Amino acid sequence: MARRLATYIIGQLSKMTESSLFYFASLLIALASLVNLCLPLLGEISLQQEALLQQVDNVLLQMIAVETLGHLLTRQRPQYLRSMSLWIDLATISPMILFTVLANVHSPVFARITMESWAGIYIFKGVRALRLLPIFYFFYRKRQSISFESTRFSPLKQRFFTGISSLVFLIILITGGTIAWRFAQELHIQRQSRIQQLRLQAGSYGVLQAHLAFEATILGSWITRTGERIWIPGNLTNPEHLQNSLLYQRDYVQIDEIQPGQSVLLSLKDLHREQMQLELTILFSGSLIILSLLIILNHYLERLVIIPLQRSYTTNQLRLTGTELYQTLHNTPAVTEVTAWIQQGDDLYNQLCARAARL
After folding, report:
1. What's the predicted TM-score (pTM) here?
2. Taking all residues of the chain, what is their mean pLDDT, rounded to a whole number?
């Protein structure tokens, strides 16, 4: 009884994971996770908004984890285990697992600083864009099944969609990660230089002069007058808003004891934003390159390989039934190795027919 129930559940789950509705939901989840990843580029966000985006991202990644588990429980499990899709799904949910481990080992704030300050973290999270490739291939097959016969489905196209394209995109991400790591080193040098210049300026001419000289990057300054600590606003008018909008050591640093009783809050958010913009630009460019390759190469693969081979297959099937067809391809758009091989087969067929007619 239990075995029958398990078989029935697996069967229903297999049907569900192969349905258009399932892949449509998977497409919405993948697109939502990519949009959520790029939302910080639209403008300045507070720490509460950043935490909310992180929670939404975790929920979406949990949905992807459930989807991955569903594939592992279906009858298509052996095929899924051998495919690139499994590794793509595991790489997609790995940031969520890593964030959970860091949050449990250390405090949540330290985990956030560690995750968001890593060079290439957005490129690492951008692996989720690869999930769109098998989804697009599924809907491509659906469209083909409506317009053409199922014999047009080619293992070559499946490898092209889910194999070669994934490999090229991974190469782009690895290269982009290397560029992001090198760029992060340059930003670290700029960060240290900015802090050192501010220290020298404030130490030589005082905090007020340093405040004027570095006005664009100064959040505010604290000075002491007649025993009273006074806040001089810069880009941040109210120091109480600091905890809600900026993260210490990532977005700003506080330089204390430049002079007795004086300190300066130096903004570093522009450097962090430059790093984030670079990584998301690399991710967007890589996605655009893969999309262009899919459209262009799929067109030429269909036109120069799949269609001629399909016509050759149909012609040979008719010849085996006794129909005399002397030419397979008409109005061939281009001469390739495939069309030359088909033409050679036509020449051989015509010679055999001529010999048979003389007997």
Report:
1. 0.73
2. 76
